[in-house]
Amino acid sequence: MPPGVTTYPLTIAPGTGLELPIRFRPSGFGPASTVITIDSDDPSGPHQVQVQAYAPSGRLAVTGSTYFGEVDCGIAEKTVSICNIGPCDLNVTSVKFRRKRRHFKLINNPFPATLPPGSCLGVVIQYRAACDPECCELVVKSDDPDHRRVCLDVVAYTRCQPV
Fold first, then answer.
1. 6-38 residue pLDDT tens
2. How far apart are CA 77 and CA 8, in angstroms?
3. pTM for the whole thing?
4. Which of 18, 22, 40, 92 lies 20 to 30 A from 103 at CA?
5. Architecture of domain 60-157
6. Which residues of the chain form CATH 2.60.40.10?
């Protein structure tokens, strides 16, 4: 483990060295690089060290069925899980219907939220039975560079009794 440094300036004895921990936190996903400049009393001047890293992203996965099928009179619910299967945090900015629908509703929607690697949050879709078939789109938005927006068809219908 490298020694901890709590104060600067440092004095390094001739012929020795000192490991210094650094943290490089890129502002976005993918490859990133920067240059660290080390100022000292070395007569040859400041030294520069190139730092490179690859910042992976979270990865969005959506599981669960959004197909209600035939629903008897009353209310039916389905849970869809919004998951992060990537190595870093995933920011899910919204989960909502593309357009408001009279018979569909999201119950206790926890989004926007940040999902740590390997975690999931559930979204409950509620359907209030109606005589006409009903469909809509559930839209999930995140900062996953490969799946910034995922659209799911939500479908339900009720068999109406003749009057």
1. 677 778 888 888 787 777 777 777 888 888 888
2. 60
3. 0.72
4. 92
5. Sandwich (2.60)
6. 60-157
